[in-house]
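User: quick one, fold this
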Amino acid sequence: MSRLRVAFFGSPDFAVPVLDALHAEFDVVLVTTQPDRPAGRGMRVSSPAAARRAQELGLSVAQPGRLRRDEGFSALLREIRPDVAVTAAYGQILPQGLLDIPEHGFLNVHASLLPHLRGAAPIQWALIQGDTETGITIMQTEAGLDTGPVRHQVRTQIGAHETAPELFARLSVLGATAITEALRLLGAGRLPSVPQDDSRATHAPMLKREDGLLDFTGPAPASYNRFRGVFAWPGTFFRHLGSDIKVHALSPRIEDGPAPGTVLSVDSEGVSVAAARGSLLLQQVQAPGKRRMHARDWANGAVIRPGDMLS
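Assistant:
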């Protein structure tokens, strides 16, 4: 069989290894990304990572604003006539009319073991929930939210101290491997299609800023898992005397204390705070308008002593 003609849809860094793998083995006839947008402190207009990589590879790039209203883009895809389309963190909902254009439809590279963790933030919620295993699902895209048949899955263990950026990087590479395996099977006519069991579905909604709030009334291991999951955004913080104090490094401890939120110690290791079960060692923090600092230095400046309460 001739090389599959693939249209690729993806935008952020996660999509780049997938694009590289597709380009190495298949005929990538179009790369579609989100439009260029202002980003960073200077709000300079920046192209998505996948668009920049596609240009480096000499591939055709399209950046439609709203797919549902862009008849010109639909006409372009029909003219190109890809055998299959692949999505990886593209960032827009695909209308049914677009899904019907490629002969084999759209295959999505989803960073969970569906039907577990359907939604926008599966990597973060796998960590927040304390999952020890995750993976990549190659799913047939339907109109519903990550509800399509499973075509291929690859599993991996989650490291006990792995953070969201680290797991993102690993799963992007695993996603590249999984989609190339799936497309080889598709080309040979041997790619399975297994309906998802909706009764086993769980969800991974987009994170909100309040998801980063450190809750001293919960068990220390659960707070540590949340710290790992929200590490990139929104980050972890707690509130003290009306200010949000960012936490850049912490670790769980087994030592118990009195009421949750009670400062147990302030020393060279950091600030140890009681949780509902165990305690949390704050190691690096940042007060509003200040630089990052050792938690002990922050506590000394804020006149925080063992026995004080952190809200």
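User: anything notable?
Assistant: The radius of gyration is 23 Å.
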